Amino acid sequence: MPPPHSSAPPPPRPAARPFRPRAAAAMEPAPRFSFGVIADVQYADAEDGHDFWGRRRRYYRHSLRLLRAAVEAWAAERPPPAFVLQLGDCIDGVNARSGAAEAEAALGRVLAALGRLRVPVHHAWGNHELYNFGRARLAQSGLRSRPPPGPGPPAAPPGDCHAYHFCPAPRFRFVLLDGYELSPLGRDADSPRRRAALRLLREKNRNADLNNPAGLEEPQFVEFNGGFSRAQLDWFNDVLRFSDENQEKVVVMGHLPIHPDASDEVCLAWNYRDALSVIHSHQCVVCVLAGHQHDGGYCLDSHGVHHLTLEGVIETPPESNAFGTIYVYDDKMVLKGRGRISDRVMCF
C-alpha cells in the first residue's frame, strides 16, 4: 500500500537473539502458545523502487531474503510457534506489469519460503494480491488458508468472502476479516460487486485518481483500501456473540487497520467504524492485528482493545527485518519483535 506522508524509516535495531520465555525465572506460568506475525513483504524480482509518492525506498528482492530469515528464526524457536499470521501484501503489484507468469512465479517463491515452516500459515488478502490476481484465482491458490469447519458458529460468511475463525487453544479464538470484500480490486469488469464498490468509492472520492486522498472528508475512501459487507459484519457479530457466551478471548486480524489511532487515516478500512462498533458491542476481543501501513502503529482503545499495526517488510533495509513472535498467556500477550518491530506487552 502507499504509506503515509512521513520521513525516512528509523535506523535498524540490533539483531536480537531468539526469544525463549523462561517461566520459572519469572515465577509465572508458561505461555499457552505462541504465533508468528509478519506483514507487507511485497516481494518482486525487481530493482529497488519507491512508494506511491516517490519518497520511501522499497527493497523488492531483499524482502524475500528477509522473509526467509524470519522463517529460519521461527523454526529455531523452542517451542516453535503454533502458527504464523501473514497479514497481507506478500507480493507487490509491480509483478502484474510483467504479466501473469511473473506474478505466479513471485507468489510461488513466497509460498515456498513459508512452506519451510512445519506449522499452519494464515493469510490475509491485501490490495497487492488483488493487483496481481482475481479473487477466484486467490481462492484456488496457496493463499486460501481457511481451515476445515469446527464446532461453533458458521466457519465463514456467505459468498466469496475470505474470512474465517479458528481456535488454536481452548478459550482462544482468532478471526480473520476480509477488508477487500467491498472493493473493485480483483473482480471482473462486469461484476455487480465491482460496480457497486466503484459507485460507493466515487460518491466519497471525486478525484480523477481514485488513489488520491486529497481534499476528502473521509480520506480512507481510496482504491487501495476496501471495506466489509453487511453480511460479513453480521457473521462477525455472531462469532463474537458465541465467544462472549463461551468466555473466549478473541484476536481479530486482517490487512486493513480499523482504528485511527493505530494508523494514518489514509490506510483505514472504508467502513472501519462499523467493524469497531461490532467489536465494542462485545467483551471478548482483546487485540486487532493489521498491516498495510508500513510505519506500523499501536493504540489501546477506549474499550480496552489493543490495536497493533505491523511495520512492513518491504520498506525495511536489508540489514534489519520486521517480524515478531507473540506469546499468549491467560491475561496478556507478549510481542517479541525483530528489527523494526518493538517488543510490547498487551495485558487484558
TrEMBL record:
It catalyses: CDP-choline + H2O = phosphocholine + CMP + 2 H(+); ADP-D-ribose + H2O = D-ribose 5-phosphate + AMP + 2 H(+); CDP-glycerol + H2O = sn-glycerol 3-phosphate + CMP + 2 H(+). GO terms for molecular function: 2',3'-cyclic-nucleotide 2'-phosphodiesterase activity; ADP-ribose diphosphatase activity; CDP-glycerol diphosphatase activity; manganese ion binding. Residues 35-295 form the Calcineurin-like phosphoesterase domain. Keywords: Hydrolase, Metal-binding, Zinc. It comes from the Eukaryota. Coiled coil: none annotated. Its EC number is 3.6.1.13, 3.6.1.16, 3.6.1.53. Its cofactor is Mg(2+). PANTHER family: MANGANESE-DEPENDENT ADP-RIBOSE_CDP-ALCOHOL DIPHOSPHATASE, PTHR16509. Monomer. Belongs to the ADPRibase-Mn family. This is Manganese-dependent ADP-ribose/CDP-alcohol diphosphatase. It comes from Phasianus colchicus (Common pheasant). The gene is ADPRM.
